[in-house]
Amino acid sequence: MRRGELNAPEHTDSCHLDIAANRGARKYSRTEMLLRVLWSVGRWVFMISPRPAFAFRAWWLRRFGAKIGRDVHIYPSANIYMPWNLVVGNESAIGEDVLIYNLGKVEIGDRATVSHRAHLCAGTHDYECASLPLLKLPILVGNQAWVCADAFIGPGVALGEGCVTGARAVVTKDAPAWTVLAGNPARTVKKRVLREHV
After folding, report:
1. Which range of residues forms the domain containing residue 185?
2. Number of domains in the chain
3. Using the 8-state DSSP alphabet, how is residue 76 labeled?
4. Within a domain: 14
């Protein structure tokens, strides 16, 4: 391949992204813009709170519109992009350095865990449209599911109840309940069967 062929259009000479249209599009309501400004300050309060202050962080997130259940552990280094688009069930946990890019709604069920450095990405762009419009696609992490370290959950994905997403897995499709996923792209590697507590 010669220099320049990488950028050659395959369809017609008029195939160009419309960046001006993308930048000019209104992506957020006035209320969302105001909330984003407020959260840019409020996030610092969240981040500097002491590590064991789980109840305080849950309370603080609720002040910004999040729906947080009881006995939820969210660590101060977690990066929650838009708290008003976050729902977390009872007894769940969001670990260190988790990125919840919740342009769309992110719902995490009861007794679910999102481990350190996992990325829940509820926003993307329509790459087949010249203006690359923003898409805000929701994510659901079912009850008792576990998103392991460094895993990526893509826009519009639903993880079934009890589903385990292995470390560094990349999930771009819905996953059945009580299965274990691994790999990039993630695939089901086995069923998850719980043993009795001993």
Report:
1. 27-191
2. 1
3. T
4. no
